[in-house]
Design a protein that fits this description.
With 506 residues, this protein is an alpha+beta fold. The protein contains 16 helices and 19 strands. The protein is 34% helix and 26% strand.
Length: 506
């Protein structure tokens, strides 16, 4: 036990630096760097450092490591002390540990150089593991190496990064200052690993499909357009991998999935970023019911992995993610929350009349099924708090889905809603090439009416169906939204390391 304690005061936590003070501090740090270089000690020339332990290993295995010499490396985020004794907090990827440094252990010159280190400097420290008088596990420094000099002062911890836009633009600073942010992204990584384990255990194989497409397809969305110079053609950043993955089902893979980025040239809000991560999976010889079981169990498995329970809190609300989830048809949900029963509405004209009776003014080109979906968006979505599969979507908005055998105006499709947000979309996949061409033709009519998100005809995909695709279930789920839910994050930007931001010069 060590009795040489000092009061833990970090002056840089007292006030927020002004721009002029930042410039002044940077000059001081540049001057220190110049002195180091003049003395042949350029910290940026360091190549390696032999780290023996991370900080959490020292804390978790203290009984074994007490009295032993360890070597750790990380960033100094606090300095306190006086005279011949000083304390610092060294942070690495797993946490922090206190260093205890005395002049008689380092020698006068080395200790003087230690005292000149700045908050943010990255150092390697070697020393003996012990516990201070106050019970804090620490390292008694016997030697150190300056591995990288921080030339720009960090925002102080007391004030932190309160400007949300700055947090997203300078995520590297956010990660240094706010350990909870790093925890969110470690959980994100754990969720994606769990999804892969879950799918691999079900004998799916992970594949990769093109990001640059000659035809945007697989979803109703506006694409980003680019140009391939060598081929001299316009190409599209993919809006979905669906049509390629179903080609693989045709080819006999039977169970495939892809985790990857999609790109949609649409609006931005707390639920939407122009590029985002999804999982899409397709399984031969199953249908919508199989995809429901897979989806709810995947979510529950991820929740257990990062939270240890299926009962969680998100933004002040309680949720149970334990299967099975509720299952409700779109028609029944619309009837429940709007009072309009679309099972009694047979024509477009009747649908328009029902809409006007509820104060809605649908666009003139919309049809019955599209107006049913409009009712759902206006009256139902916000009420779907606990996990709910909404089933039986109208054919007009489901161009890649099998019709229901007992009602050809509806399709064998679900979307999963939690807290009023869509999380997953799944079908019993359309495998009739004749029907598929007719659906694509219908989508072209929508484009002619001004819907630039409607599908184009993918002739090669249609050709692939002509070779025969088995009955197949398919599902796509937004991983970013799932991470938001499982980490209690309010905005999609909170779970993207580098969200899309407007250029500062615009």
């Amino acid at each position: 036990m060590e009795n040489n304690e000092v009061k833990k005061i970090n002056p840089e936590e007292e006030v927020q630096l002004t721009e002029s003070e930042i410039i002044e501090q940077m000059q001081v740090r540049m001057d220190k760097l110049a002195v180091l270089k003049d003395n042949g000690q350029n910290p940026f020339e360091q190549l390696t450092y032999n780290v023996t332990h991370h900080t959490n290993e020292i804390r978790d295995n203290y009984a074994e490591l007490e009295g032993k010499v360890v070597a750790v490396a990380g960033r100094l985020l606090s300095k306190r002390g006086m005279g011949k004794v000083s304390f610092c907090d060294l942070h690495d990827r797993t946490g922090k540990i206190q260093t205890f440094t005395k002049i008689d252990a380092l020698g006068e010159d080395a200790y003087k150089a230690w005292q000149k280190l700045d908050i943010g400097d990255i150092v390697g420290v070697e020393g003996e593991v012990f516990t201070t008088h106050s019970g804090e596990i620490s390292i008694r420094t016997t030697s150190y190496v300056l591995l990288s000099k921080a030339l720009r002062p960090l925002p102080n911890k007391f004030h932190g990064l309160k400007d949300m836009e700055l947090k997203y633009r300078q995520r590297y600073v956010d990660l240094i200052i706010n350990p909870s942010v790093k925890d969110t992204f470690e959980k994100r990584s754990a969720i994606i690993k769990e999804i892969r384990r879950f799918m691999d255990d079900r004998n799916y194989i992970e594949v990769e499909t093109p990001i640059l497409n000659t035809i945007p397809g697989g979803a109703t969305a506006r694409p980003f357009v680019t140009h391939h110079n060598s081929l001299d053609i316009d190409m599209f950043m993919r809006i979905a991998p669906e049509l390629y993955l179903k080609r693989l089902i045709v080819g006999g893979f039977e169970r495939v999935y892809e985790i990857g980025r999609l790109f949609r040239n649409e609006g931005m809000d707390i639920k939407h970023n122009p590029e985002f991560t999804t999982i899409e999976c397709y399984e031969a010889f199953t249908d919508l019911r199989g995809m429901m079981e897979l989806t709810e169990n995947m979510i529950a498995s991820c929740c257990m992995k990062v939270n240890g329970t299926c009962d969680i809190e998100y933004q002040g609300k309680q949720f149970c993610l334990k299967p099975p989830f509720a299952r409700v048809t779109m028609t029944d949900a619309v009837k429940q929350y709007s009072g309009i029963d679309f099972s009694n509405i047979k024509t477009d004209a009747e649908a328009f009349e029902a809409a006007r009776s509820k104060g809605l003014e649908p666009e003139a080109h919309l049809r019955r099924g599209e107006i049913l979906n409009l009712f759902f968006e206006v009256f139902v979505e916000e009420n779907l708090i606990q996990p709910t599969f909404i089933c039986d979507y109208p054919i007009e908005i489901s161009p890649l889905t099998k019709k229901k055998n007992d009602d050809p105006t509806l399709t064998d499709r679900f979307e999963l809603f939690i807290d009023g947000r869509e999380y997953a979309n799944a079908y019993s996949e359309l495998n009739d090439p004749i029907d598929q061409r007719e659906r694509f033709a219908d989508q072209l009519k929508k484009r002619e009416q001004g819907d630039d998100e409607a599908n184009l005809i993918d002739e090669d995909f249609c050709m692939s169906l002509e070779y025969g695709m088995p009955p197949t279930g398919g599902m796509g789920m937004g991983i970013d939204r799932l991470v938001m839910l499982l980490t209690d994050s309010a905005s999609i930007r909170d779970v993207l390391l580098f969200p899309t931001m407007k250029s500062l010069d615009k």
